[in-house]
Design a protein that fits this description.
Elements (H helix, E strand, L loop, with lengths): L4 H57 L4
Length: 65
């Protein structure tokens, strides 16, 4: 396959664009995964606090004689 200099430059630019796009997609995916994990952890923490507060609230409202 005999490519002209113009075609070689176009191919090189295309490869560079693909490499940059792939890298950015990987970074975006990792960031999204981290954000999702943080959001899930925060939700579980809030839920656990609510359950704990409900249990403590029930214990405090019941008087033991």
């Amino acid at each position: 396959m005999n490519l002209t200099i113009k075609h070689k430059i176009q191919l090189a630019v295309l490869i560079i664009i693909i490499v940059i796009s792939t890298t950015l997609a990987g970074i975006s995916t990792r960031q999204l995964t981290q954000d999702t994990e943080i959001a899930i952890a925060d939700r579980f923490r809030l839920h656990a606090e609510a359950v704990s507060n409900n249990i403590l609230g029930i214990r405090n409202s019941v008087s033991i004689d």
